[in-house]
Amino acid sequence: MISIYLISFIFCLTLSRIASDDYLENLSVNTGETATLICDLPEKYSNKQADFYGPTGRLLITKTDEDTGNGDRTRFMLEHTYAWTWSLILSDVSDDDGGEYTCRVSSSSDDQTLTIIKRFNLTVLTPPKIVDITIESNNNEILKENEQIILKCSARGVPPPKIIWHIPGKKFLINRRNDRNIIAFDNKLLIKNLSRTAPIDYQCLADNGIPPRDTRTKRLLPSISPELTIHSSIQSSRILLNCTIYARPLNSAKWKRNRFEINNIKRKQINDYTVELLLFLDINTNLFGMYECEAENALKISKAFINIDDTILINRTTTKTATILPKYHRISSPSYAQIELLLNQGSICKCRFYLILFLYLILVNYSNGFYHQR
Fold first, then answer.
1. What's the half-sphere exposure (Cβ side, CA atoms, 13 Å) at 179?
2. Is the Cβ–Cβ distance between 134 and 218 less than 8 Å?
3. Which DSSP string do the residues of 285-325 spell out, in sequence order?
């Protein structure tokens, strides 16, 4: 059985032998254009027909004006310009057409021996294409404030594209800027300190001389735990409580009165980091109590408090213009025991009043009895 396979293999080799009498020509063509491979036969082969073979070793076309039908071969055309000149014309070149092509002729009477006359190394030039911009950090792409990160811009193209980093809105390229916090090297961008004051958008530009260039922008917004500030003011017959929240991302934000959530609030987005939580209180209603602004994200739950009591009415009667009340700024949460103490201040004062009245009555009765005895 093995001898049969061996004899068959030797027989196939004798059917077609390839000799070499060639030289190499390098060609470059842009994607979508037409490539022309010209093969000039030596004088001894001037009466022969040249055949062109592709990178996979396939015979592309056998004669001029051949009807190749449908499919990929419709892009190939064989021309016989002069007696010794043959040309292969490949239209609408794509990335897959790159590789080595050969021009061959039959150099024996039985057409079993092929001589390679010329080789063509076809390089298809393709414009740059950015594949992705990835983030290398220590927190699995959860960006934290003041940490160091690296942006990596991956692009492909022939020839390999050059990467240039740019900040939109700036007149300079990062590669040409002496910035100690932002450093570009190869296709990477090092940001030593991703602070809230650092640029938000970073643009990767890929260029290899083949138009068009490709660009892609990456937005970096570091995560910030909530920071709260409460402003209060009197406007006509209403009190405005404005809780300014500085955080990213902001999962939830709410106002509470005496621990119970208030639904009728207005939320105003200032920018990517800042939100204002507005609460309007009617002075003519029962509005006294402890008001709590609460903000939450994955990093922290922050709270700030303001106590509304009867001093607001005093401020309102002593001035006709809008009165700015004291500003409260508290990041950490007080204990609930402290909150209870504030909420129960009124009842404590009442108890003290009744205790003093009771002692006063005892003292008066004792004085009257002592006077009557005398």
1. 21
2. no
3. S---EEEEEEEE-SS-EEEEEEEE-THHHHHHHH-SSPPBP
Write down the H helix ranges in the chain.
2-15, 311-318, 336-343, 345-373
Spatial contact of 294 and 254, defined as CB atoms under 8 Å apart:
yes
Q: How far does Cα 20 stand from its chain's mean position? A: 54
DSSP one-letter string for 105-163: EE-STTS-EEEEEEEEEEEEEEEEEEEEEEEE-SSTT--BTT--EEEEEEEEEESPPEE
Amino acid identity of 368?
Answer: N
Helix, strand or coil, per DSSP, at residue 2: helix
Q: Is 53 helix (H, G, I), strand (E, B) or coil?
A: strand
The predicted-structure confidence for 213-266, as pLDDT tens digits, reads as follows 999 999 998 999 999 999 999 888 899 999 999 998 999 999 999 999 999 899
Beta bridge partner(s), residue 80: 86
Token pair for 233: 């003011």
Inter-residue contact 199 to 217 (CB < 8 Å): no
Determine the Cα–Cα distance for residues 38 and 65; give it in Å rounded to an integer: 17
This model's pTM is above 0.85: no
Chain centroid to Cα 155, Å, comes to 16
Identify the pLDDT of residue 109. Answer: 63
Q: Residue 207 in contact with residue 162, Cβ under 8 Å?
A: yes
